[in-house]
Amino acid sequence: GVDLDAVGGWLGSYGGEDSPDDISRGLFAGEVGTPRLLKLFDRLDIKTSWFIPGHSIETFPEECRMIVEQGHEVGLHGYSHENPISMSSEQEEAVLLRCIDLITELSGQRPRGYVAPWWEFSHVTNELLLKHGIKYDHSLMHRDFECYYVRVGDRWTKIDYAMPADHWMQALERGEETDLVEIPANWYLDDLPPMMFIKKSPNSHGFTNPRDIESLWRDQFDWVYREYDEAVFPITIHPDVSGRPQVLLMLERLTEYIRSHDGVRFVTFEEIADDFLAKHPRQQP
């Protein structure tokens, strides 16, 4: 999965909305990093899923057309990488509808998948996705290498030190399972936190050796390959990060390593969702 955050990422999440320099880094992601990744995927002969904020679609129309023309899937990822928790339900739905229209116009078909900006779900995100016909999500983390069906209505009690302790000593209450497929998100298979410098992030990295990340990802893959008969290994990358030479080379090495194992396939996220739906139809209550 490729998140084309670009300028939108600096507007919505990374604290660069007032910095011409940070905005220029977003322009790099759209105009330089994206073509480099497309060239890599063409060389490796794999199809990927791009989750593109509406801002990126309208700011980089040529590069987004290249993504579609090369046969990659396009999914939803907010407009300006807005945090769903910070929006009203009306704002969140307005963003969703605008971006569905933008992706439909770009790709010729309605998007089937969604990635929440900054991997933050609001209390109504799952209901909105179901309401507007989205097949799968890639934001939640109940599991790491197995797809599952998203629940709605989970409830938990926050600690309130102004109240007696009995007020908050309550177990989490699970809601009801829905038809929305979850392809789990995974911070430990994401290129951005360890390999992109963010000035306003107190724990920013950005100078991690990609070979160290490659080792971490290989170890995870080796364990999953040994322990599971059926699994997903959903890596998330960004042109902001993986458009850099050192990371492109790492991705080449990693792809060839993973491909050397019998029974492994590189597929789009929609193919993953369709395979899960076919093999594990939801049991109706």
From TrEMBL:
<feature type="domain" description="NodB homology">
    <location>
        <begin position="20"/>
        <end position="267"/>
    </location>
</feature>
<protein>
    <submittedName>
        <fullName>Peptidoglycan deacetylase</fullName>
    </submittedName>
</protein>
<dbReference type="GO" id="GO:0005975">
    <property type="term" value="P:carbohydrate metabolic process"/>
</dbReference>
<dbReference type="GO" id="GO:0016810">
    <property type="term" value="F:hydrolase activity, acting on carbon-nitrogen (but not peptide) bonds"/>
</dbReference>
<dbReference type="InterPro" id="IPR037950">
    <property type="entry name" value="PgdA-like"/>
</dbReference>
<dbReference type="InterPro" id="IPR011330">
    <property type="entry name" value="Glyco_hydro/deAcase_b/a-brl"/>
</dbReference>
<dbReference type="Pfam" id="PF01522">
    <property type="entry name" value="Polysacc_deac_1"/>
</dbReference>
<dbReference type="InterPro" id="IPR002509">
    <property type="entry name" value="NODB_dom"/>
</dbReference>
